[in-house]
Write a structure and sequence with these properties.
Length: about 250
């Protein structure tokens, strides 16, 4: 079987210090890509990922940036270009989650989630797309969520943001095809810090596990989808939303 090769490509993965982002960064590097590991305030974790990638014989750097700030995003992309080369693959993974009843959700709560989960996707994409257009190729992979389709009580800003990511993905795909492929991944419940008592009530955690697979997924099970979408095997995928979700959503 032909294996996936990303030799000669540079990938930028946001929110890559832990969880799904870390797994995607490691998978892309294992396929030969040079990888920029973005984080915000997680330097130790990000450096561990860089060391993990380097130990496997690939190239990686740590890049700290708040992806909700345009100036900081532009500086991050400039650093990646100067260190690793033009970004060929962008994975918009960074995000946050918030559980709170709708009527208790403040304007600050709304802005916090929408900025991290939707505005950041816009800003990072806008920063790398001009050069992708110039070279006539590139892949953008946006991490959405099954809740962008399903909705979920007490997660209104998160659901709205992830639905926005899906709409943004499809609009971008139409605008930048055929040279640049823009697709999304909408994971179901995945074993990350978002699925912890810190971010989710016991009631919601129980619901997340009550799916046909009888378990939550692992970050590596999402990384495989990202690896596929970043590769030439996905050459006919434009504006698609792939959902590794253990059967939680059968749409």
């Amino acid at each position: 079987m032909t294996t996936i090769s990303l030799e000669g490509k540079t990938a930028l993965v946001t929110g890559a210090a832990t969880g799904i982002g870390r797994a995607i960064a490691v998978a892309l590097a294992a396929a030969g890509a040079r990888v920029a590991v973005n984080h915000l305030g997680r330097a130790a974790d990000a450096r561990h990922v860089v060391k993990e990638i380097a130990a496997a014989g690939a190239s990686a750097i740590e890049v700290e940036a708040d992806i909700t700030k345009a100036v900081k995003v532009e500086r991050m992309v400039d650093k990646v270009r100067s260190s690793l080369g033009q970004v060929d693959i962008l994975v918009n993974n960074a995000g946050v989650i918030l559980e709170k009843p709708f009527l208790e959700t403040s304007e600050e709560d709304w802005d916090f989630v929408l900025n991290a989960d939707l505005k950041g996707v816009f800003l990072c994409s806008r920063a790398v797309l001009p050069a992708m257009v110039g070279q006539g190729s590139g892949a953008v992979i946006n991490i959405a969520s099954e809740l962008g389709f399903l909705g979920r009580e007490r997660y209104v800003p998160y659901c709205a943001a992830k639905a926005g990511v899906i709409g943004l993905t499809r609009a971008m795909a139409r605008e930048f095809a055929p040279a640049i492929r823009v697709n999304a991944i909408a994971p179901g419940p995945i074993n990350t810090s978002m699925l912890s008592p810190e971010h989710m009530s016991a009631e919601m955690l129980k619901r997340e596990r009550a799916i046909p697979a009888s378990r939550v997924g692992e970050p590596e099970e999402v990384a495989g989808t990202a690896l596929f979408l970043a590769s030439d095997f996905a050459s006919f995928y434009f504006g698609q939303v792939l959902s590794p979700n253990g059967g939680a959503w059968m749409g």
